[in-house]
Amino acid sequence: MVRRFLPIVLVVVLAGCGGDETQQTTTVAPPVTTAAPDPGKDAVDALLGAAAAGRTEAIWGLLSSASKERLGPTLGEFKSGAGGELADSLGSFRNPKVIVSERITPEFGIVAIDGRQNGRKAVYAVPLRLEGTAWKLELGGPVKVKVLGPQPGSRGLVAQIAAAVTGPGGTGTAVMYLDGHTENPKVAGTTGNSTMYANFDQALDPGRHTVVVFASDGRNAGATAWAFTATKR
Fold this sequence. Notes:
By secondary structure, the protein is an alpha+beta fold. The protein has five helices and 15 strands.
């Protein structure tokens, strides 16, 4: 069941000042139940609908102010550049199912979907920034999340999932999800360049699995999502 922007589960220092070591603390939040609608689902549904219709001006209206500055900074520039690319990329996404929708920090949240793109199974994740009372899409920021393993679409025995996070450098927040459930990964790295990984005592059950990673660095955020297939132990 998708939760409506719950409090943070894992807090890490992605790139602390004055040293290269990365620290980690864990805070467990009490169960929270909230009523519909889910703002994350609403935001991604609006994005996919606008992309499918080729309405770049509607996509522009869904972006955070910081995203507009990075991807525009005017509607005309956005429509002729990043807006058209985004519409082309997501316009074929069908049958989306929300697998993650949570509030991570007071300013940022994340939503991730699993569906079909160009006829193939696909996953997609995007950070959301709270502006006033509205959650806006956070795109094109300096925080980058790169898949380390397993690679998207790969098949094999899997006992570890991992991703690399790069950013400007500063205190940040990171969360990793496996099949929609939060993991408690280890974090290692140096300033502006960290690695998140979760090891499992037993290899994952055979079948398709999804991974979603969110990371923030100061007042910037990034996310990624991918899927792979685990084979028999």
